[in-house]
Amino acid sequence: MAMNLSHLRHSDSLDKAATVALYIFAFTALLSTTAATAALWTLVALYLVKAPSNGFHRARWLFLPWASLLGYLVCRTAVAAWQKPEWAAYHVDGFWGWARLLLFPVVAWWCRGDENLCRRLLAVGLAGFVVGILRVADLHTLESAYQGMRTGFHLRILAFGLYAGTFLWAVVCFAPSFFQARRFRGLWTALWAALLGILGQSLFFTQSRGVFLAFGATALIVTAILFLTSIGNDSQKPPKSLKKGLLVFWMLLVAITVVNRPLLEKRWIEEKNTLLQLRSFDFSRPAQDSAGYRAHLYRFAWEGLLERPLWGGGPATSKRFIQESGRETLKAPNWKGEMQWWDHLHSTHLEVLFHFGILGGLLWLWLYGSLFLSVRRPWRKGALSTPMGLFSLASLIYLFLWALFDFRSLHPDWRFFWNFLAGLIAAKPLWMHGPHAEKESSP
To answer: How far is Cα 409 from Cα 369, in angstroms, rounded to an integer?
Structure first.
């Protein structure tokens, strides 16, 4: 009896420590690398202490693609290091960067399938993101942004567009929580409108074509899901407040687009000559704008994929391969005006194919697709609310489309964001398909 009480107290202490680490990780994921790193690895350590008997290995829908991908990364790294020993350290370092993207099941496991906890963590993550914006958003920064200078506030511009767009979808999808607040409903509605405006305008400050295209396409898909298709059973039809929120979102999106028309025209004027002449683009000459840089990088990636179509070149960073090529056309000026090598291929999908080949790309797609499809089952059963289900789909669609145009996966902010987002999305399906699902369904 005493042993059981001691075990329960120990287990409760672990749960409380993990909950604190979850909230710290959510708030600092896009705010503080040191704090987020400590929180994430605390979750991993606590998981290793508690999870041997309650691990996620019984949730086969997630464990099989996860384990297959991790095994492939290990094998590809070993083979690449054996084939080119002088690059062994680079390949191992690259493997470590990619492997840390697979920590999200730990976040999902500690969420315990609790949707309310996931919502609170998402709100805390949004709060941390807004704090980061406000911390650097002085009058000079805002004035420069309105005059046409691109900004990502406290983060890199294109990555900031992904994060702002994802949290914007959270605000839209969880509109019912604001509109139907039991107390201070007017204040909550005003806060919802303020967040919508701040995140929407911040999205435009990036002046990123990839962000605009990905977000616009996602908006159309989400609208189609909400209005043109049947979602779940009759009891899971979208609430009217969610439709109203989406309608307000579209009105605001159109209004912000009109207000920011000069910024859009400026970006088009800067790039239109290259875009209109891509068919006759001279790849022997250095590029002068971002569209030209992408053309050179995409061609380099395509040629590398054709050389190693099945296995790819290995996990060493793209900068190593670009430097080895010696192509001066793969250089661009830094903020000092000095020419330097590109360190990525400007597309996450191309990065995956270039480094891990078609086989590695299919394994990554299997894992990503498993996350996407796993949302449907609890949603249809009514175990997942419409706002949470819609947000999960919207964020996954937006991230997939954004990844066509940029790459940030090996940097701390993106790694934390991915593990946080994927962990929240996988939380409910993980526990529905895992060991506790059988206990809940048993008479």
So the answer is: 18
Residues with Cβ within 8 Å of residue 225, at least 6 apart in sequence: 231, 390, 393
pLDDT tens-digit series, residues 83-125: 999 999 999 999 999 999 999 999 999 999 899 999 999 999 9
For residue 329, the Cα-to-chain-centroid distance in whole angstroms is 30
CA angle 172–422–412, rounded 5-degree value: 105
Domain-by-domain residue ranges, the chain?
A: 2-53+103-266+375-441
Instruction: Note the pLDDT tens digit of each residue in 56-92.
Output: 667 888 999 999 999 999 999 999 999 999 999 999 9
Q: What are phi and psi of 340, to 5 degrees?
A: -145, 160
Q: Helix (H, G, I), strand (E, B), or coil: what is residue 342?
A: coil
Q: Is the dihedral of CA 102, 104, 109, 115 positive or negative?
A: negative
Q: Give residues with Cβ within 8 angstroms of 312, minimum separation 6.
A: 76, 305, 353, 354, 355, 356, 357, 360
Read off the DSSP letter of residue 52: G
Contacts of 40 (CB under 8 A, 6+ apart): 21, 25, 103, 106, 107, 416, 419
3-state secondary structure 127-181: HHHHHHHHHHCCHHHHHHHHCCCCCCCCCCHHHHHHHHHHHHHHHHHCHHHHHCC
The secondary structure element, H or E, covering residue 80 is: helix 60-83
